[in-house]
Give the backbone structure.
Amino acid sequence: DAKTTQPPSMDCAEGRAANLPCNHSTISGNEYVYWYRQIHSQGPQYIIHGLKNNETNEMASLIITEDRKSSTLILPHATLRDTAVYYCIVRVAGNYGQNFVFGPGTRLSVLP
Amino acid sequence: AAGVIQSPRHLIKEKRETATLKCYPIPRHDTVYWYQQGPGQDPQFLISFYEKMQSDKGSIPDRFSAQQFSDYHSELNMSSLELGDSALYFCASSFQDVLYEQYFGPGTRLTVT
């Protein structure tokens, strides 16, 4: 089962910042938070990941609360091409390694 | 930059047939992951390989098997295909199995009729 909860859908006006929240209240101290997105039927695309410090790259910013129980992905200037399902993922310990458990994610619609 | 390559991109099989999906990871990546995404569903982890050894197993049916070869490419073999196996199959690769982000291929769309 996914260790994260996200709102099922969000709308954002084109050109505005999109702020996507994620709750991961059971996260362990050494577990990273990853964000991926999937544009219709394409392979999921890596966006960003972080442990406890805020992170920024050319795609987005990741804000992680001090207690690490939640985070927010920020797309600073959303475009129509950012319409996708956004997944917040905490790796789940498997038998030998760490698995990604997807779902259910937030369906972001960027509106003109 | 080179990406993950999957072949074929589309595959149509009949019930009870077999199918083989191939995945070529990004150069220098040593870990491969397979995911299945049914219609309207989220990707589900099937199996992963690190340095040619199975590193973890998810919800992979017993009818499916996979391996990673010496050149790090991987193949997913599916036998006794069922209608419910119709899905997008994604392969992802990463450098080492721990902490590093996974890069996904474009997927293989398998249709079982």
Observations:
- The mean pLDDT of chain A is 90.
- The two ends of chain A are 35 Å apart (CA to CA).
- Residues 14 and 79 of chain A are 5 Å apart (CA to CA).
